[in-house]
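Quarterly update from the structural biology core.
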Amino acid sequence: MSDKSDIKDFLLREKWAELETALQKKPALIRHIMGFLYHVEEEMRWRAVKAFGIAATVLHDEKIKDLLRRMLWSMNDESGTCCWFIPQAVGEIGYQRPELIVDFLPGLVYFKNDPDAQLRNGIFWALDRIAESGTEIPDPDDLMEPESVLENRVKEVRRYSASRN
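Predicted structure, tokenized:
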């Protein structure tokens, strides 16, 4: 069987222990799980979400952080992708590894007002799931909007440039 077929079998038959062992031996299998977040059947997408939670318990911290970065980027319009189950996967990772999700919460909270209802529903599910771990979810009003961050960076660059002249 191929790696993708193995992952599909683990998900279909809910072989979570086998999936965990496979991920420990070959962390790159996570890319095949990502594909199942796009599956036509919702049940398979939810199984992929659970699989991300399992992956979060066995993969190295840096691998998980890289995965979270890519997942948050994929929710951005500029990424050119649209996977409505990415937020749920992020939420499951955050539930399993709350110490790693904290830095990514502002990015996740930012999407609470996205015009896409399906994405918003996923964001709310993710935030609720993360909160179940005891992680405090930031208030959106306490977060800087991306435009404000950009404006602050421009000001910093101007101050730096002025100080060098």
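The chain has one domain: 3-140.
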